[in-house]
Write a structure and sequence with these properties.
The chain is α+β, with helices and mostly antiparallel strands. It contains 13 helices and 15 strands. The longest helix has 19 residues.
């Protein structure tokens, strides 16, 4: 049976456009397990081999098509072998969280093989206190953060499997790739339907213009946060109690995302002052999902951006900033955008970046822009702890990416009552990332009513 034609979306292609710098556009997560007996990679491979078929995209690779046949398509990989994707490695000496984070950064920044489905799962053994970890890496063309959580729901133990298809027969795998004739015919039908439905894009174009504020985006002062990035990344963590963050957010009329934005801008403002720079406002590129939840059988990227120019200090002296005032101001700024169409900006951003790529200008644009100083993304994870191989996953650490001339990004994930914020920084352009982490923890402590211990 020939496989149905599954094309890369315009948003998927945008991530391929990004993937032209020294660091691949890949994302990941670190699953930290409870202490116990060592986990065995063979057992993990066996479990994943049973569960991966419930997520068809994990056994597919993206293939280019002949000229005139439309966008690239996802096809079954006839050479798929779980041992190529599930591997193991020992935690580097001397062990501990720092060694684990350095290893995770190295894995996420190592390009995945282009001739296989773009994902990997690396079991890390030899961690302190007998707490093994699993580092999962996905190329961003496969899915966004919301989709990645849907994938995880199908791979872990127990009730989360209810979110996956009840049965996924393997008898038809691998299905033959579509013929050139069928690709061309389907592409022609798609172009015709697109022309007929073009008028439906007008409302999204309006919302995209508002979301991006392309006509009146505030300029911010140039600073050392914008410099071309290299191939290496360093990770640092900050944590806080999720209920406390929600309490602080409600008191300011905002959301947990507002607490995060207030904390990261305050921390960056403090870092810049350490560097001898005074910047009172910074613009964050806030990734917004175009859907409330992902589905394992419908993986793709549905994200847009909100550009928010936020204060780094309160209404008082910069040396004694008022975090509550900044939180209220941040909530006011983001509240005005909350009613917009989710992910509408992708309607403008996707074709713009593809044209820049076609003209050979994408890399120049990404390394010379001065609008955005940081990337920020927030994901809502499971409210209860998950388990894999019968072992409780005590913590989920998100790992996002940064590129162009944006030297720092923040990825936040709520999980089992905690909010974990990962700082992803260019190792060479931001050597003081541990100072940034210290400032971020201090900002979160000031903002929440009961800091996590």
């Amino acid at each position: 049976m020939t496989a149905p034609i599954e094309r890369a979306s315009a948003n998927d292609l945008m991530h391929l456009t990004y993937d032209r710098g020294p660091c691949p556009v890949q994302v990941g997560a670190v699953l930290r397990f409870e202490a116990g007996t060592p986990l065995e990679v063979e057992r993990l491979r066996s479990v994943f081999a049973e569960r991966v078929p419930a997520v068809p995209r994990l056994r597919q690779r993206l293939t280019r098509v002949p000229l005139g046949c439309g966008r690239p398509v996802w096809v079954d990989d006839p050479a798929f072998n779980i041992t190529n994707h599930v591997t193991t490695i020992a935690c580097p000496s001397p062990g501990g969280e720092r060694a684990l984070l350095d290893l995770a950064a190295a894995l996420v920044t190592t390009p995945l093989p282009a001739d296989r489905p773009p994902w990997s799962a690396v079991l890390v053994t030899g961690c302190p206190q007998d707490r093994p970890a699993l580092v999962m890496v996905l190329h961003h063309v496969l899915t966004d953060g919301t989709g990645a959580l849907a994938v995880l729901a199908c791979l872990v133990d127990g009730g989360q499997l209810a979110e996956c298809p009840e049965d996924t027969p393997d008898s038809t795998f691998p299905r033959p790739a579509p013929s050139r004739f069928s690709l061309a015919a389907e592409a022609l039908r798609g172009r015709a339907l697109g022309a007929l439905r073009a008028w439906r894009l007008l409302p999204r174009l309006y919302h995209a213009a508002v979301e991006l504020r392309v006509l009146r985006l505030s300029r911010t002062r140039r600073c050392s946060l914008n410099t071309p990035t290299g191939p290496r990344r360093t990770l640092a963590l900050a944590r806080c109690d999720l209920a406390s963050a929600r309490t602080a957010a409600r008191a300011a009329g905002g959301t947990v995302n507002d607490v995060l934005l207030t904390a990261v801008t305050g921390a960056l403002g403090a870092l810049l002052r350490d560097r001898g720079e005074v910047v009172d406002r910074l613009t964050a590129s806030v990734l917004v999902s175009g859907r409330l939840r992902g589905r394992a059988r419908q993986l793709d990227n549905q994200i847009g951006v909100i550009l928010a120019t936020l204060p780094t200090t309160g209404d008082q002296d910069p040396d004694a900033p008022d975090p509550a005032a900044r939180l209220r101001r941040t909530a006011e700024i983001t509240r005005a955008r909350r009613a917009r169409v989710r992910g509408a900006s992708a309607t403008v951003v996707e074709p713009l970046f593809r044209w820049l790529s076609a003209l050979g200008l994408a890399t120049w644009f990404f390394t010379h822009q001065r609008r955005v100083s940081m990337f920020v993304t927030t994901l809502r994870g499971p409210a209860r702890p998950l388990a894999l191989l019968g072992r409780t996953i005590e913590e989920l650490v998100p790992v996002s990416g940064t590129a162009g001339n944006v030297t720092v990004a923040f990825a936040a994930l709520s999980y089992a009552g905690s909010l974990t914020v990962t700082i992803v920084a260019d190792t060479d352009a931001c050597p003081d990332v541990q100072d940034l982490a210290t400032h971020l923890r201090a900002e979160l402590d000031r903002l929440v009513t009961v800091p996590a211990r």
